[in-house]
């Protein structure tokens, strides 16, 4: 579980520094005793780190790290939010160090969520990168004292874009990534800032509400759930809250790898329930799914088994291996569901092999082993008609990372256009 350190911070510079010193004297338990890779949103790096000393901190490519900011009161403009965050987090001489990359209304209707980056990580973010969440209080917002949360983990649901008033959203797009992934970083270009769900899609589909969903699924850590149905049940809680905030919006899912299994199981769970208004609303509103390298009939788990063997995560991982009874049962229910509900599936599969898991001399695991096909074509396209199948000349991780308006992004845009043509309300605006 992520440990949150709480720093009570009025804006006064002197008081902030005093409180910062007090915080460092008290200390807390970090969320992990292992450092993330160079980019905490990029799980493919083979770099292993065991210290968080200042010299290491300064060696990071710090301007590649994306932070999520939650709790911004509704009604604050981007300029107001930027000014307040600068006062809250930065010294005067560093005020140009912060960039707000997105600002969107949360589904609670009361607050907003932002994504931001720094040229250099502020000293007030004590413990970075081991620590992944910080809380601040601020009384500068017009609504009174507010709690502002910064994090790098992106757990739960994060809304990246909502249409600006007077426009209202006419569709919800929710993206979910796979095992051991990062909700935001999985869809972000490698070595850069571009993230297509945030930076291109709102221009092309300006009346979509666009979200990503994150969950703890690192196999070398305590999982946030023990089974696929448990992962899906937790996802359903967030999905239900989202759909209740804007009832009857068409739903589109963008899924990568295990994220596709989570969505399948979630929708199958709904279909088993008594058909009340809420249940029927969610199922009836699903337009379609863009499934990127989803292991419908199984995932190559051979290199992952040593990570979990003998532990509590082994049974979970084995439920995803080729031929697993769980996947067979899920596919039977899923195929009946998509036929009865006319859900459109577009499937993408990887053409390149991917590095596999390998334990390094320091005992840590990295994707640095011999290359292999993690999800084979027949698994990724199972049950999808040929005209809706697209190969991508990338490995398993990169299959969902696009460069700005590249060929694959343009294909995805066209597929979303096809899906939204099913409803006359969805207004498509191309750049």
Automatic annotation (TrEMBL):
Protein's cellular compartments: Endoplasmic reticulum; Membrane; Mitochondrion
Top-level taxon: Eukaryota
Family annotation (InterPro entries): AB_hydrolase_fold (IPR029058), SERAC1 (IPR052374)
Keywords recorded for this protein, A-Z: Endoplasmic reticulum, Membrane, Mitochondrion
Disordered: annotated span: 27-52
GO CC, alphabetical: endoplasmic reticulum; membrane; mitochondrion
Main location per the UniProt record: endoplasmic reticulum
The name this protein goes by in its record: DUF676 domain-containing protein
Organism: Schizothecium vesticola
């Amino acid at each position: 579980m992520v440990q949150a350190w709480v720093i009570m911070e009025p804006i006064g510079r002197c008081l902030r520094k005093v409180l910062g010193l007090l915080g460092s004297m008290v200390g807390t338990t970090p969320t992990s005793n292992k450092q993330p890779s160079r980019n905490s949103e990029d799980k493919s790096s083979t770099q292993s780190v065991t210290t968080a000393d200042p010299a290491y901190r300064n060696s990071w490519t710090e301007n590649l790290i994306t932070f999520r900011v939650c709790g911004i009161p509704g009604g604050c403009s981007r300029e107001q939010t930027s000014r307040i965050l600068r006062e809250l987090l930065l010294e005067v001489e560093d005020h140009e160090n912060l960039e707000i990359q997105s600002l969107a209304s949360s589904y609670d209707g009361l607050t907003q969520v932002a994504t931001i980056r720094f040229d250099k990580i502020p000293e007030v973010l004590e413990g970075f990168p081991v620590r992944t969440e910080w809380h601040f209080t601020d009384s500068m917002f017009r609504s009174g004292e507010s709690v502002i949360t910064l994090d790098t983990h992106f757990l739960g649901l994060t809304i990246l874009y909502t249409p600006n008033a007077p426009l209202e959203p006419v569709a919800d797009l929710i993206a979910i990534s796979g095992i051991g992934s990062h909700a935001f970083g999985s869809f972000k270009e490698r070595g850069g800032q571009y993230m297509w769900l945030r930076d291109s899609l709102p221009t092309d589909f300006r009346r979509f509400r666009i979200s990503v969903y994150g969950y703890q699924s690192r196999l070398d850590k305590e999982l946030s759930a023990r089974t696929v149905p448990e992962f899906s049940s937790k996802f359903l809680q967030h999905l239900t809250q989202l759909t209740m905030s804007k009832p009857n919006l068409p739903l589109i899912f963008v899924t990568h790898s295990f994220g596709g299994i989570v969505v399948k199981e979630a929708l199958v769970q709904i279909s088993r329930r008594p058909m009340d208004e809420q249940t029927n609303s969610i199922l009836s509103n699903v337009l379609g799914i863009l499934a990127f390298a989803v292991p419908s009939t199984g995932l190559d788990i051979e290199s992952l088994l040593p990570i979990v063997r003998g532990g509590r995560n082994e049974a979970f991982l084995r439920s995803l291996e080729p031929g697993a009874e769980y996947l067979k049962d899920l596919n039977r229910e899923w195929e009946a569901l998509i036929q009865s509900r006319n859900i459109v599936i577009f499937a993408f599969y990887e053409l390149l092999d991917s590095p596999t898991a390998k334990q390094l001399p320091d005992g840590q695991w990295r994707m640095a082993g011999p290359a292999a096909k993690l999800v084979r074509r027949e698994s990724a396209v199972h049950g999808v008609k040929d005209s809706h199948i697209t190969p991508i000349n990338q490995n398993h991780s990169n299959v969902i990372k696009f460069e700005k308006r590249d060929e694959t992004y343009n294909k995805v845009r066209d597929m979303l256009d096809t899906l939204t043509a099913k409803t006359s309300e969805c207004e498509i605006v191309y750049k």
